[in-house]
Amino acid sequence: MERAPLSWTEDWERLERGGQGTGEVPAAPPAAVPFRVGGGAGLRIRTLGGLAIYRGEEDLAPSLMRRPSLAFLVVHLLAHAVVDPGANQYRPSIAEEQAPRLGSSEARARLRGKLRDISAFLDPDLAGLIRSDPEHVSFDLSGCSVDVMRLIALARDVRNGTSVLSRDLLDEAKAALDDAPGEFLPEWGALEKAASATGGAAEVVIEKARERAERARVDLLVAVADAYLAMRNPGAAVPYLEEANSRRPELEAVAALFIEALRASGQPGRADQVQAAYGFGDATQARESQAYR
Q1: pTM (2 decimals)?
Q2: How far apart are CA 265 and CA 283, in angstroms?
Q3: What is the pLDDT of residues 117-135, one digit of tens each?
Q4: Which residue segments constitute the domains of the chain, with CATH numbers given?
């Protein structure tokens, strides 16, 4: 039976519902802001593997990180923009996430002070990304190229596709994976400590952004592998499936596809090891039972 492209993602949806499911349909993830690289792009923001904010060849991130209190707010708003692109955040909510141990009025006053300091002390191009009015505040991604949004947008295109990747989309997916190998904002923990702001709700937003980035990455890893399997090149598919399996070992459909690619590429010993670890009787049958659940 022919497997629909990325039908393995039904396994992921099942896990998000909590096991075998309650019959509820999970909420659709927020639509990604389209990522386009072009000469007209403004700042280039790298979030995966470490923060960098490029204006041409100049990186504005080091000067931002020297002001940890302001950096804490900027990257917090950036994470919100990744989780919910284009949405304005309610200022009192952001104030509480930034300073959970303070009373609401003091937290709002601290947020007002940070917003003033962003305008006063940060590079104007960077400060201009933070938009605020009396009710709302947000990080404006429009006009920027952002690595994680590129990953998410490509994964959305893959999930919406009805066939294996075209050659152009395959090349673009591989380039996006090569350009973004790391975790979303790995410096967050150190920044929390430097800003004396550990334990707040802002960390939950970071984790949501990381989950969104990770899902997009695994989607693309499996899509690239699917393309190589369709080309009858299982050896090229193996490293992509191995990474997807190592990142999300709970996804049995991915593990079963990994086993299939190992066998097809002449690696039965490794295939047997993975199959034994998951307790699969028949790898192809296991993958299809998960994919078509």
Answers
A1: 0.78
A2: 15
A3: 999 999 999 999 999 999 9
A4: 44-145 (1.10.10), 232-293 (no CATH)
